[in-house]
Amino acid sequence: MLFINPQWQGSGITNELKAGAETLKLFFKDYKFKEISLYEKDLETHHNIIAYNSILKQTEFFKNEIAERKLKKIATIGGDCGIEIIPISYLNKIYNNDLCVIWIDAHADLNTPESSPSKTFHGMPLRTLLGEGNENIKKLLFSTIKPQQIGFVGLRDLDNPEIEYIASNNIKSVLRCDYSDLENTIKSFNNVYIHLDLDVLDESEFKYTMFPTSNGFKINEVNDLITEIKQKSNVVGICITESKAAKLEQLEPIRKILEQIII
Ligand SMILES: NC(=[NH2+])NCCC[C@H](N)C(=O)O
């Protein structure tokens, strides 16, 4: 099942990811997808999270859409990375924690509301999934994950508390975009979830993200990695986030990657 979740409120005060999701809807117009409704009121900061009430509501919308279907696989297009807390916690629950989460991203998204420098929720979803963060948001999770379930690929813009969390919890983090570096982590589980934030790509390859930066991966490298993970393991979930491309032609260079969403 393919979901399009245009949640942008987790990325801060501009709604460029909403336009990004509109473009992605056009890109995927021939596929059957379900769009998650937006709730764009209540954008004030509470509990150290920008647009707190709106994020709570959107998370609830997504949760309800997933809870009423008996899905074994979930594919999602964002929106911001904050949407991940629902499909990952759902799949982790139905596969009894036998789920490896491969997080291909320039950012670790491991902030708590207190440690976050920006107070934007898209920097917090993984820490939330690990069971820390805002209580009301945590109540919406289907389950929580453990640090050993995570494999980071391509982190290059971290906050100090994230660096400390990764080190003290011994989380696997590789800097090359190469399956062999991840093989042992993936093979410890029977099921895999792939998270792809498009900002892991080098800005010269794709710049339509909220944080385009240099020293990123090439489109082909990321596409090959996803292909290999799909060939060698049971991918039960995938999500692609943070595109603000406002025109279809801006998505053309990443067509192959976007088509990987079909699992
Ligand atoms: N999903 C993202 N693009 N996250 C960016 C997070 C940036 C920064 N680490 C923060 O927490 O504010």
Question: What overall form do the CA principal axes indicate?
Answer: globular
Number of distinct helices? 10
Helix content: 25-40%
How many β-strand runs?
8
Number of domains: 1
Order of helices and strands: EHEHEHEHHEHEHEHEHH
Structural class comes to alpha/beta
CATH topology: Arginase, Chain A
Instruction: Supply Rg.
Output: 16 Å
Span of the ends, CA to CA = 9 Å
Compounds present? arginine
For the biggest β-sheet, the strand order reads: 2-1-3-8-7-4-5-6
| CATH level 4 superfamily | Ureohydrolase domain
CATH class, please? Alpha Beta
Summarize the structure.
The protein is 33% helix and 13% strand. The protein is α/β, with parallel strands linked by helices.
Overview of this protein structure:
This protein has one domain (2-259): 3-Layer(aba) Sandwich (Arginase, Chain A), CATH 3.40.800. It contains ten helices and eight strands. It has helices at residues 16-27, 52-67, 85-94, 125-129, 135-138, 160-168, 179-187, 219-232, 248-251, 255-259, and strands at residues 2-4, 33-35, 74-77, 100-104, 150-153, 172-174, 192-197, 235-241. An eight-stranded parallel sheet has the order 2-1-3-8-7-4-5-6, with helices on both faces. It is globular. 49% of the residues are buried. The model has no long low-confidence stretch (mean pLDDT 97).
State the main characteristics:
about 260 residues; eight-stranded parallel sheet; binds arginine; alpha/beta; Arginase family protein; single chain; 10 helices
